[in-house]
Every structure is written in structure tokens, then in C-alpha cells.
């Protein structure tokens, strides 16, 4: 999982994932079935707050800490369930948000002639917006005909 994360995520997101991955090692899990629904209470020790990872009807996992929904990075609780309860060794693709991948950084820029520019700089998004704005301004100038 860590090797995969290092390959796909940007450095900042990889470091956050690595932190969650390391925390997951220490967690304890149980498995509870209630009315056919499966959920996993997860905690560090008796004194820490218990979180619940629930298996949704589409087999995706959600955690009561809501970290994935808020940050787009898997929390230690879901990582723990994936690895130790479900024996999944790779991050399922639905949990890898494209915006946090290195690939998203590469794909984002075209120059004003439509040619692709491949860059790994974070500024490429802003450059793309800047170029779009320039093109828009040029179009506006063409539309506005001089009044004689
Ligand atoms: Zn969680």
C-alpha cells in the first residue's frame, strides 16, 4: 500500500497517507454485524475515542471520523480495516482521488495553441487559468466592434 501510495500520490498527500498508515498499525478492531449491516469498531485503547468503519451497500467503506469525505485521504481506521479485516493489500481505486495524484499535475496544461505542455510544477494550474483568461480577453476584443 505504501509503495503504491508513493507512486500515485503527490508528496504532501503521500506523507499524510504514510502518517495514517503508521497509526493504523496500533489500532484494535472488532467486527459487528447488526441487521445484516457490517461495521467495525476501531480504537487505539480503552481511553481513546472509538470510531466506526461501516461497510456500505456498494461495498465501499465509510468511517465515523469522516476524514476521507473532508480531506480525500484515507484515515487510519479504514486503512486498518482494508489491511487486517479485508486482507486488501492495494488502495482500491475509488479511494484515490485524481486531484491528489501526480498524474493530475501532469495533465493540466495546454498552451494557447492547444498543444499539451507537461509540467510537474504546481503552478501549471494557475498558468492554465491565466492562458484561458487571455484567450477570453482576445475573444472579447474581437466581439466588440469599434463604433464609427
Ligand atoms: Zn476514520
From TrEMBL:
Listed PROSITE patterns: ZF_SWIM
Primary location group: nucleus
Cross-referenced Pfam families: SWIM
Annotated GO biological process: regulation of DNA-templated transcription
Keywords per UniProt: Metal-binding, Nucleus, Zinc, Zinc-finger
GO CC terms of this entry: nucleus
Domain SWIM-type: 51-86
A molecular function GO annotation: zinc ion binding
InterPro entries: FHY3/FAR1 (IPR031052), Znf_PMZ (IPR006564), Znf_SWIM (IPR007527)
UniProt superkingdom: Eukaryota
Keyword flag Nucleus: yes
Keyword Nucleotide-binding: no
Subcellular location: Nucleus
Position of the signal peptide: none
Role: Putative transcription activator involved in regulating light control of development.
Protein family according to the UniProt entry: Belongs to the FHY3/FAR1 family.
Name recorded for this polypeptide: Protein FAR1-RELATED SEQUENCE
The organism of origin for this protein: Dipteronia dyeriana
Amino acid at each position: 500500500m505504501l509503495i503504491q501510495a508513493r507512486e500515485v500520490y503527490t508528496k504532501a498527500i503521500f506523507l499524510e497517507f504514510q502518517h495514517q498508515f503508521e497509526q493504523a498499525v496500533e489500532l484494535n478492531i472488532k467486527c459487528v454485524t447488526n441487521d445484516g449491516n457490517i461495521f467495525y469498531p476501531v480504537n487505539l485503547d480503552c481511553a481513546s475515542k472509538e470510531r466506526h468503519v461501516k461497510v456500505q451497500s456498494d461495498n465501499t467503506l465509510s468511517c465515523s471520523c469522516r476524514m476521507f469525505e473532508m480531506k480525500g485521504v484515507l484515515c487510519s481506521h479504514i486503512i486498518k480495516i482494508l489491511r487486517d479485516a479485508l486482507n486488501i493489500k492495494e488502495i482500491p481505486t475509488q479511494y484515490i482521488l485524481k486531484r491528489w495524484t501526480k498524474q493530475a499535475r501532469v495533465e493540466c496544461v495546454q498552451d494557447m495553441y492547444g498543444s499539451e505542455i507537461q509540467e510537474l510544477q504546481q503552478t501549471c494550474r494557475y498558468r492554465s487559468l491565466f492562458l484561458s483568461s487571455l484567450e477570453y480577453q482576445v475573444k472579447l476584443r474581437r466581439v466588440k466592434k469599434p463604433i464609427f
